[in-house]
Design brief:
With 78 residues, the chain is α+β, with helices and mostly antiparallel strands. The chain has helices at residues 10-26, 73-77, and strands at 3-4, 34-40, 44-51, 53-60. A hairpin with a 1-residue loop joins strand 3 (44-51) and strand 4.
């Protein structure tokens, strides 16, 4: 069953990844961690960590990349 959290922070997700890494490293065998991210509406991202189980997080996110202004004929002539 999925371990689901409603809204988390990026810090929560990184802490969970670190905890899972430590568990796999201590395990007497092999393991795998897979991380899926997708952009949601309302400035959020969904992060799913696959590691035997799925750990689902929804995190508030702002796109820090500013779009470059579109160059048109009127902006070139100025």
């Amino acid at each position: 069953m999925d371990k689901e959290k409603k809204v988390s922070t990026n810090k929560d997700v990184k802490a969970e990844i670190s905890k899972l890494y430590d568990e796999i490293f201590a395990h007497n065998g092999y393991g795998e961690i897979k991380i899926d991210m997708r952009i949601l509406k309302r400035g959020q991202k969904e992060i799913i960590i696959h590691c035997g189980k799925q750990y689902r997080f929804v995190v508030d996110w702002e796109n820090k990349i500013k779009k470059k202004p579109k160059i048109t004929k009127s902006t070139i002539e100025k």
